Amino acid sequence: MVLNHIRGKAVVFTGHSLGGAIAALAALHYLCILSSSWAYAPAPPVLCVTFGSPLLGNKALSKAILREQWASSFCHVVSQHDVIPRLLFCPLDAVPAHVIIGMQLQQLPMCVLGMGRVGAAVASRMADTNQEALRQLIQEHAGVAAIEQKLDATETRGGSPYWPFGTYVLCSPDGAACVDIPTAAVQMLYATFAARCMPETSTVSPEAAHSCYGNLVQSMPQHLLLKRRLGALPATAAPAVSNYDAGISLALEASGITGEATEAAPARQWLKTSKHVGRSPNLNCASLSIRLGRITPCRAQIEWYKASFDGDTGYYDAFKQRRSPKKFHKANMYRIKLGQFWDGVLSMLDTSQLPHDFHRRAKWVNAAHFYQLLVEPLDIADYHRHNLHRTRGSYISHGRERRYELFDKWWKQKGCTGTGADSGDTSTTAAAARRSKFAGLTQDPCFWARVEEARDQTESAKGEHDAAVLAMKLESLREFERYSSELVESKEVSVDVLAPQSSYSLWVEEWKELKLRDEVRSILFQF
C-alpha cells in the first residue's frame, strides 16, 4: 500500500538487522515496479541503506541486480564486530539452535518476553556462554568463503548459498571503507571480523556490536574529514610506493585492520585483486569489439546472398530449397560462424566476463538485433528443410535458439518499437512509424516460421470434415492474414517476402482458393 502511494517519487528505504533485509526486499520490489512503469524515461532515484543486515539472496540474485544496474541503490553499513551480517556465511545447520534463541532473547524487549529480571538473567547468561563460540564459528566459515573467492570457487562447493550485493560500508572506531565488488565484500567481511577476534580485543559483546550503529553514523563524518588529510600515512601502514597503495593502506586502517594484524597482508592483496577483476570485463568487451569487426564480412556475405534472390523466390526459400548449391554452402558456412560468435558472446556474459550492463549497450543490442533479423530466417529454413517441425514441433516453441530469445529481450528492454517476435501481436506494428519503402529486413524475425505454420494449417483445413475443428483453423488463419497484411501495408517486411515464388506469396494464393469453398465461406460469414 505504501509503495503504491509513493510511486514515481524518490525514496530512501532503511532498516536495522532483520529490518534491513526487509528494507532491501521492499526496495527491490519498488525497483521492479519502476522498471516496468518507467521503461522509456529515467526512473526516480531509489536508495536503500541497511545497518547490520544479514545477507539476502544467493549469487544469482546478486548477478541479476548487477545486470539491472541496481547495485548502486544499495548501501549496507556493517560494524567490525557485528556477527549478524556474517552469520549466514555459516551453513544453515551449523549454527546451534540455542545460539539463535539467545540472540532472539537479546533482540526482544523484556516486557515482550514476560520474564522480567529472570528473562534478563537467562539472556545474559546465554550470551556470555556462547559469544566466543559464535565468534569462532563465524570466523571459520567466513574464512572458508573468503578463500573460495580467491580460488574462484562457486557456491556449490558446500558453503553458504548467500551472497552479498550492493556497496558495503565496513565501519570501525577508526573510520569506514567502502567495497562494491561482491567477491571483495566477502573477503573484507571476514578480514575485518577476524582482525579483532583476538583475546585482547574481543571484549565487545555481540549485542553491543549489533546495536552500535547510531554512534558509528554520528562519528563517521568526522572520520571521513580526517582521512582527507593525506599529508602523512599512518604509522602502522605498510610503506607505500604510490598513491594507489596509500589509498589501500588508508582503507585498511579505516576498516579496522592495523598493519600488525595477521589479516593485513591478504586483505591488501584482496583489495588490489578486486580492482583488477573490475577492469577485466571492460577489456574483454573491447577485445570482443575487435572480433565483431572481423566477423562482419560474414554478415555482408549473407546480405549479398539475400540480394541475389530478392526478385525470384527470396533468400528464405532459396536457402530452404538449396538453390545454387555453391551459394548455399557459403551462406550456410557464414550462418554457422555467426551463430558460434554470438553463442560465445552469451557464454562470456553468463560467466561474468563482460560488463553487467553489456546487454543494455546500444552498440551490442543493435548488432545482435541486425544479426537476428538477417540470419534467423535461415535457421528457420534449415529447421523446416530437415522436417524438424514434424518431429520436434513448431519452430517458435521447440526449435528456436536461446540466443534469439535473449536478443528479443534486449531489444524490448532498449525501448524500441517494432513487431513482437514472440506473440504475433500487431499493436506494435500499428504504433510504429510508417515507412516510405519496404524495410531492408523483415522486422519480425519469426515471420517465416509463422508463414510455414499458416501453410500447414491451410493444407490441413482443405481435408478437414469436422466443422468445429475447421472453424478453429480458419479463425487462426484469419488472424495471420490480418497480421501479415498489416506488416505488408506498413512496409515492415523486406521485398523478398513479396517475391513471386516466396512461401508467403504461395500461401496467399492457397488461402484465396480455400476461402472460395462453400463450407469455408459459410463459416467465414458467421465470423
Automatic annotation (TrEMBL):
The chain crosses the membrane at residues 21-41. Keywords: Cytoplasm, Membrane, Nucleus, Plant defense, Transmembrane, Transmembrane helix. It is found in: Cytoplasm; Nucleus. GO terms for biological process: defense response; lipid metabolic process. One of its GO terms (cellular component) is nucleus. Residues 300-527 form the EDS1 EP domain. Its main location: cytoplasm. InterPro entries: EDS1_EP (IPR041266), Fungal_lipase-type (IPR002921). Residues 10-90 form the Fungal lipase-type domain. PANTHER family: LIPASE-LIKE PAD4 (PTHR47413). This is Lipase-like PAD4. It comes from Zizania palustris.
